Amino acid sequence: MIIKEVIDLIEDFAPTKYAEDFDNVGLLVGDSSTEVSGALITLDTLEATIDEAIAKNCNLVISFHPIIFSGLKKLTGKDYVQRTILKAIKNNIAIYAIHTALDNQYKGVNDIICEKIGLKNRQILIPRKNSIKKLTTFVPCQDSETVRDALFAAGAGSIGNYDNCSFNVIGKGSFKGNEDSNPVIGKKGEVHYEEESQIGITYPAHLESKILKNLFKAHPYEEVAYEIHSLENNNQHLGMGMIGELETETDEKTFLNQLKETFKTGCVRHSKLLNKPIKKVAVLGGSGAFAINNAKAAGANIYITADLKYHDFYKAEEKLVLADIGHYESEQFTKNLLYSFLSKKISSFALILADTNTNPIHYL
After folding, report:
1. For residue 348, what pLDDT is reported?
2. What is the pLDDT of residues 60-111, one digit of tens each?
3. What is the helix (H) or strand (E) element at residue 211, kind and residue range?
């Protein structure tokens, strides 16, 4: 396989279109047409990660965090970012990063946190907006099933746990082709009326080019009439954070100690304990202070995240407990998630979980 084929698999799972605007995802270093000898899967890409890739004959590093985040104006090796990039280039090692595209996936970063905690009835904490579109097109009745099936095959018509969803109205369309036209039905220069089906169908925004390709291929008309609208609907299967419930409620200290053990963290920083049972739990891997109000609004008893600052803890306002388990600790299982997904898709080269511990924080 070449690198592009691996990237296509990853982005079918976690489309980079849904990465946050501030992020830097995708192929950061390397040529996408290069054949892959092996892929090292890691949370972070550092010099030690590149050394491990060299030792294990991997010419592709699949990283959660991007090593290049802001613009680089020079490559002189004066800091750890530049040294890592230079070492990768010298050794023909490509670097790919997925980051917030995977954060926003329903079966992504936060889902695996929920799994480790044992949460059920999971839902997205902050559903993504402006990620659903609607296509309306007009098709001769005798061809409507063919066109619908082509749209379904491209991924349109999925709503939550349902697929092949569409709305259809029968009506009468009219058209008149000019002298340069080549109508499939009717004659050029004459007004033609045709019994048509109006098909309305929704789809995820990242599939638009594929869906339009299938529409044009399956539609019988020379000129295809269609409309596309962006919907305001929240996407319940895409977005930041998750919220779920414990099978059995537990007391705060027991739950915090379980967190410390499960995520192997040196400490759990938390807000004031409220002496209330923990049942409803919100999570957001990585830096999650921005979602404290969302966790409160969702009725969470505790919100688990990382990188909370001093004043962030005041925002608990005795409505819930805030628990900071550490950035690395909250995302440490992400590389296992990527490995599990790719190992079901790839058998032509070695997929290797990185042994390098990239956590920059240590505890006494």
Report:
1. 85
2. 999 999 999 988 899 999 999 999 999 999 999 999 999 999 999 999 999 9
3. helix 208-218
* Dist CA 163 CA 149 (whole Å): 11
Residues contributing to the annotated binding site for a divalent metal cation: 65, 103, 327, 331
- The CATH T-level fold of domain 132-233 is Alpha-Beta Plaits (3.30.70)
For the chain, give every residue range classified as CATH 3.30.70.120. 132-233
Residues in the chain, how many?
364
Percent of the chain scoring above 70 in pLDDT: 100
> How many alpha carbons lie under 13 Å from residue 96 in its C-beta half-sphere?
28
Q: How far is CA 10 from CA 210, 340, 343, in A?
A: 17, 12, 11
Task: Give pairs for 221-228: CB < 8 Å, separation 24+.
Answer: 221/140, 221/183, 221/184, 221/185, 222/177, 222/181, 222/182, 222/183, 222/184, 224/137, 225/137, 225/138, 225/173, 226/135, 226/136, 226/137, 226/138, 227/135, 227/136, 227/137, 228/133, 228/134, 228/135, 228/136
Q: What is the architecture, at CATH level 2, of domain 109-128+238-330? A: 3-Layer(aba) Sandwich (3.40)
Q: φ, ψ for residue 235 (rounded to 5)?
A: -90, 110
Q: What is the dihedral of CA 38, 43, 49, 52, to 10 degrees?
A: -50
| pLDDT of 161 | 85
Residue ranges, comma separated, of all CATH 3.40.1390.30 domains in the chain are: 3-99+333-353, 109-128+238-330
Q: Which CATH class is domain 3-99+333-353?
A: alpha beta
For residue 364, is pLDDT > 90? Answer: no
d(CA 359, CA 361): 6
Residue type present at position 35: E
Binding residues: 65, 103, 327, 331
